[in-house]
Structures are given as C-alpha cells and as structure tokens.
Design brief:
Layout (H helix, E strand, L loop, with lengths): L4 H4 L18 H17 L12 H12 L1 H7 L6 E8 L5 H15 L5 E5 L4 E8 L4 H20 L18 H20 L17 H4 L33 H16 L3 H17 L6 H5 L6 H12 L2 H12 L1 H17 L2 H18 L29 E4 L2 H5 L18 H11 L4 E2 L11 H6 L2 H18 L7 E3 L2 H13 L6 E3 H9 L9 E6 L3 H6 L2 H11 E5 L13 H4 L1 H18 L3 E4 L2 H11 L3 E3 H20 L4
Parallel strand pairs: 4-5, 4-6, 6-7, 8-9, 8-10, 10-11
Antiparallel strand pairs: 1-3, 2-3
Helix pairs in contact: 5-6, 9-10, 13-19, 17-27, 21-23, 23-27, 25-26
Length: about 650
C-alpha cells in the first residue's frame, strides 16, 4: 500500500535498486557532499538518472516503503507458508557477487518468491524465502539450501549473522564459520557461566546439527483481517495498551496460539488463553486504528477486535444499545441530565454515587457499567437550531458527544462572542463572523455517527443508526449536493465511514479543516495567547487534518506545541469510562511532557479526547475552535472599547 511511484515504475531484471540519503549538519555541507557525489552518480550504469530530492514528504514516503519491505513481501506469500528471513554480511566489495550467487541458489532450490534487501554501505543482506517448511521434503530442501548459502557467505569472508545476532537457525553453522579452535573457546566460556546449559538453550551454541530445521514456526490461520501479519512489530509503539496488557502483534500472536492449541486438542490451554484474552485482548483494546497506520500492510487489529466483541456481546447489552439507537434523543438527554445532576451534588453525595457505581460494576461487569469520576463535566445542551434565512454553505452535524458532555467553562462572559460556551456555539459564531450560513438538520438530536455501536460490535444498532443518518443527510444536503461538517474528529470519521459503507460519494469534513480552509483567511487581526499545547487525536491523524489543527491553533496562540510523546489517549468513546486504567497507561508519557511544556491553554478536536487528556494532565483541554472564538471575541470587545471608551 502507498508504494511510491518511483518504486512502482521500476522494471526489475538483474539490477539492484538503491535508496541513497546524504546527511549533514549544515546546508552548505550538504551541498558540498551532494555535489561531490554527483559525478560518481552520473557515471553509474543506471536505468534512469539519479535524482537527489529534499522534499520531506517524498523522502518519508521512500523510507516508509523501505522499512516496511519485509512485512509487505512476507504478507504477499501464499497462505499457509512461512516467511523465513535471514541476516548475513559480506565485505562491501563482495556484495554484488554475493547477491548474484544467492539468486542462483534461489533458482536452484525453487524459491522463486525469494527477495533480497539490506543495507548496502555495510554489506548487510537480508533475504527471505517462503515455503511450507513442515514436511520432510521441504525440510530436506531447506537443509541443502542453507548449507550452500553458508558456503557462499563464508567463501566471501562474510559472517552468517550480521546485525541481528546468531539465533537458532544459524547456531548449527557457528563451528563452520569460526573453525574448531574458536568454537571450542566459545564452548569453554559458555560452560564457565552456564555449566548445565540452561540459559537460552540452542541459541548460538547448538549440539543438534539439525536444530535449524526442527523449530520453524508454522503460521496458524485465524482471520482474513489479521492473517497477513508477520509479527514485525511496527504497530507496537503506537498501541495505547502496550504498557497495560497487549500490543496488536501480541493480540494476533495469542489468537494464533489459541488456534494451534485447539488444532492439537489442548483444550486446557485454549480455555486458559481465552479466559485471559477477554480483558487483555478485547476489553483493553482502544480500537483506535493507529496500528493500521503503522502497519506496512495496513492491518487494523481494531477491526478484528470489534469482530470478536460482536461475537461475544451479551444479548441484553446488544438489545439495550439497539433500543438506544432507536431513541437517541432521549438517550443523550438522559446522559446529560445524569451528569449535570451528579455534578450538582455536594461532595459527600458524589462519594456515595461513586460507591454505588463501583458496586454496580462489580455485579454487572466493568465493561458494561461506566465509572463516574469527579473531573467529568456537567451535561451538554441540545443540538437543534433554527434554519437560517440565507442560503447555506454546508450542513452542520454537531456531535452528540458534545450534547452529552458539556464544555469547560468559558474564560469570557460571551457578551459579544459565542454564548453559551461549547464547540457548536463557537463554530456557528465563527461562520457567522465571515458570512457563512450553516444548516443543522431539525432531527439532529436523533443522529449519531455510529462509532459507539461499531466499537462495541453491536451490528443491529449500527444498522439502525446508519439508516437514520443516510435518510436525514440525503434530505439535508439536497441529495448530497452540500458538504457535511462535524465538530468532533472521531465523529467526522464515523460519518465518513457510514456514508462510504452505503456506497454514497459525499464530502464530509471536520470542522477544524473547514475553519482552516474557509474561515482563517478571512479573519481580522486579533490578539493571541502566549502558547497552546495540542493533543492530536487518532481520528484527526487518520483524517489527515492535523496540519489544519495546527493552523487553527496558530491563530489562537503565538507558540503551538505538539508533544513528541503524543499518542492515542485511549478514551475511545466510553472506553475511558469503562477502563480508566487504559487511559492512564496510554497518556502517561504525553502527560509528563505536557507538564514540562506548561502552555497557557490546552486544546484538541474531540470531546472525549479532551476529557481523557484533562484527566491525565489536570489541565483543562478544550476544543480548539472554542479557544479561537474566544480570542476573536475578546479582540473585538477590546477594539470596540478602544474606539468608544464612553460606551
């Protein structure tokens, strides 16, 4: 996926493709280096001219392709086969000959899908072959090929292991590479520290010359959604549950363990793994989709977890959420009323509510009953608005999450600005400021993007809501002629998915993107705050709207800060209310950096993410459009006061 055109256009015969990057500390140094290299590059027998580029997007695209090469190629292997990756090194001047000889060996042994890549300046070669490797004929062929490969590498004074060290596959060949005398020294050292050979048996030192043929990991088919996974681990740094329970790679690997245990008749292991997997694998997955962005073959483990949830959701829970889909106006109103009621209680009664909440979670289950906590806001306001009297530019769908969870208090009284506080009021005020009219469908209080049902795997409820959304939008947009705008990034993504699954082409954009494109260029000069720290959400990342988010933040404050340790907050709709420990683990690093940055204000573009980051940092996170509207309103008031001090 997303293969750069420069790579896709190559026609490979017997040449190599080299990705070359020059680096320097200063622009002048870089110019000297590239100028010196130009003559050599011009003299090479290339199939196309060497073009040195400095465009960051193009460079990142090429490196992303290169880093994901193993995963992409391995994922393309025939189903049921194993991808066997090796790591060897030879002197750089022997690199080309080694690749030619390996290619001949691949042909000789019938490994026609073999591929070679590596690090040319180090003489480091990774090659991969695929086969079933489990029957006796395949093992015998692999044994003969490996022996020949070792002879090729050693014949060029190379090493059978380079950057990744000697594991089980190359252990039987350590003696061949280093000779009897040095191998005996290794054995002597090993026995000094580990006389009974208990430590990592079979790695580096192997008594069995056939060890490399007997411990090959056979793939277990689990589901088409995840079977392409080769456990490369690129997804793991992005996963919000990585320091609490499992990563996406581990979720897939354990499902394969369950399948293997079931195939062997080991039902005790199946039961033990399935029991632990409910919490570790299913309940604590944020299903945020960042793993799919990091995966070279776009495996979204969240989709698989949603499928597992769908199969396991209790019937009463599914029925309750489907009922809610049919009565969403009442559901959101009840949630807002409950939040406001509890928020208005004195502290002692709030403590009692928390106690009752914990008791209910203990009886009914923590994945069913949300946990109320003191930092949660009061309920929000209804979303309905009267139709405008002038031609509209877009259909506006205020997110229901903002109707359930009220905004943090505004720092202004809103006399001439957005009132009451909240992203809907702010967005409508900003549009009115530049003469843009919005149409909010009259039945908007009954609509939702459907993410809550998708996340929980409640397919019937999702279908009910999707039907209502399509019907309402078709009418409001005049048969999809008008664009649709939503003010919560996850809901924007949800509406996009709902419409796409219905086979409809429509323009659905996030309010932040809309403001960046349509409103920012028309805004008057205004004062800015000193600094703002942004939380870029998983949905804004998937929407590609983070640049727009930074642009809007730049209209709020002089300095825009985005934490290096940013990531998904894992609030994930109601996941942060059901499993607050997930949000705590996911936000720990980012929260520590936010404290060090110590910005004037803190913002995001999704209400539940704002709640999650507020809980994690103790700083009030608000929608960036609220802050923008407040700054403009404050500047307008200040200018008016200066022009007419008597008034």
């Amino acid at each position: 996926p997303n293969c750069p055109e420069a790579i896709a256009a190559l026609e490979i015969a017997h040449q190599a493709a080299i990705l070359l990057e020059f680096q320097a500390s200063e622009p002048g140094q870089l110019a000297e280096i590239t100028q010196a290299a130009a003559q050599t590059l011009a003299e090479l027998p290339l199939t196309s001219p060497a073009e040195l580029i400095s465009d960051v997007t193009a460079r990142n695209s090429l490196w992303s392709f290169r880093k994901g090469l193993y995963t992409s190629v391995a994922a393309g292997r025939p189903q049921g086969t194993t991808a066997l990756l090796e790591d060897v090194v030879v002197p750089v001047d022997k690199l080309a000959n080694t690749c030619v000889d390996l290619g001949a060996a691949f042909d000789q042994y019938g490994y026609h899908d073999a591929v070679i890549f590596g690090h040319a300046k180090d003489g480091n070669i990774h090659f991969m072959i695929t086969d079933h490797f489990t029957d006796s004929a395949a093992k015998a062929k692999l044994g003969d090929f490996t022996s020949d490969m070792v002879e090729i590498i050693c014949g060029y004074q190379g090493s059978c292991k380079a950057e990744h060290g000697t594991g089980r596959v190359m252990a039987p060949f350590v003696r061949r590479q280093w000779g009897d005398e040095l191998y005996q020294v290794m054995l002597d050292v090993k026995h000094l520290f580990d006389p009974e050979l208990r430590l990592n048996p079979g790695v580096l030192i192997a008594e069995n010359p056939q060890a490399h043929l007997n411990q090959i990991k056979a793939p277990e088919a689990v589901d088409d959604l995840v079977d392409l996974c080769v456990e490369c681990g690129y997804c793991e740094p992005t996963c919000p549950s990585r320091e609490l329970t499992l990563t996406p790679r581990q979720r897939i690997a354990i499902q394969r363990d369950i399948a293997a245990a079931a195939a062997s008749g080991d039902q005790a292991t199946v039961r033990e793994l399935e029991r632990a997997y409910v919490y570790d694998g299913i309940h604590t997955c944020a299903v945020d989709g960042w793993c799919g962005l990091a995966c070279p073959v776009s495996i979204n483990t969240g989709h698989y977890v949603k499928k597992l949830r769908s199969a396991a959701v209790p019937k009463p829970v599914a029925a309750g959420w489907t009922f809610a889909a049919n009565h969403w106006k009442g559901t959101t109103g009840l949630a807002a009323f409950a939040l406001s009621t509890v928020k208005a209680l004195p502290g002692s009664l709030q403590t009692a509510v928390i106690g009752v909440d914990h008791a209910a979670r203990a009886v009914i289950g923590p994945d069913t009953v949300p946990l109320w906590s003191r930092e949660l806001p009061q309920g929000g306001k209804r979303r309905a608005r009267p139709a405008p009297s002038i031609p509209v530019a877009a259909v506006y769908l205020p997110a229901c999450v903002n109707a359930m969870f009220g905004s943090a208090n505004s720092s202004l009284d809103g006399r001439d600005g957005p009132k009451p506080p909240g992203v809907q009021s702010a967005f409508e005020w900003l549009c009115a400021l530049v003469g843009i009219a919005l149409f909010v469908p009259p039945d908007v209080d009954m609509l939702c993007c459907g993410t809550v049902w998708t996340s929980k795997g409640i397919l019937r409820g999702k279908a009910v809501m999707a039907k209502k959304v399509i019907k309402a939008l078709e009418r409001a947009t005049q048969d999809w002629k008008l664009p649709v705008v939503c003010d919560a990034s996850s809901c924007t993504e949800g509406f996009q998915r709902t419409v796409a699954e219905a086979g409809i082409e429509a323009k659905i954009v996030d309010a932040v993107q809309f403001v960046a494109e349509r409103i920012l260029p028309l805004l008057p000069e205004h004062t800015k705050l000193p600094s703002i720290t942004l939380h870029e959400t998983c949905s804004s990342t998937q929407l590609g709207s983070n640049e727009a988010l930074r642009q809007v933040a730049g209209a709020v404050a002089e300095v825009v800060q985005v934490p290096i340790d940013k990531g998904c907050c894992a609030f994930a709709g109601d996941r942060g209310l059901l499993h607050p420990e997930l949000t705590a683990a996911a936000t720990r690093a980012e929260a520590a950096e936010v404290a060090r940055l110590n910005a004037t204000v803190h913002a995001s573009c999704n209400r539940t993410c704002e709640l999650g980051m507020t809980r994690a940092t103790g700083k009030p996170y608000r929608h960036v459009l609220e802050l923008l509207a407040e700054q403009l309103a404050a500047s307008t008031d200040s200018a008016a006061a200066s022009a007419n001090p008597d008034k």
